[in-house]
Fold this sequence. Notes:
It is a single chain. This protein is α+β, with helices and mostly antiparallel strands. The model has no long low-confidence stretch (mean pLDDT 87). The protein has a single domain (2-85), classed as Alpha-Beta Plaits (2-Layer Sandwich), CATH 3.30.70. It has helices at 14-22, 39-52; strands spanning 2-8, 26-29, 32-36, 59-65. The longest helix is centred in the middle third of the chain and has 14 residues, at 39-52. Helix 1 (14-22) runs antiparallel to helix 2. 15% of the residues are buried. The protein contains 2 helices and 4 strands, in the order βαββαβ. Strand 2 and strand 3 (32-36) form a beta hairpin.
Amino acid sequence: MYIILMYDVNEKRVGKMLKHCRKYLHWIQNSVFEGEITEVKLTELKLKAKKIMDPETDSLIIFKTRQEKWLEKEIIGMERSNIDTII
């Protein structure tokens, strides 16, 4: 499946969450990631993210689609990370 993930966490936890999400997805914008992921890896990502987060103040939002081709993406301005160059 293809997902877009975004988080909003306290600045004390931003570094940990960034490092964690980069293990699974491509970083495209501050606190925003995208990429192909299996159901098992997504479950693992969420479980570990919950350990980093404070559920009272932090949030994690995930949009899912079957494949990237079903998602139209338009970039205006500088693209933070061009995932087309990843081998």
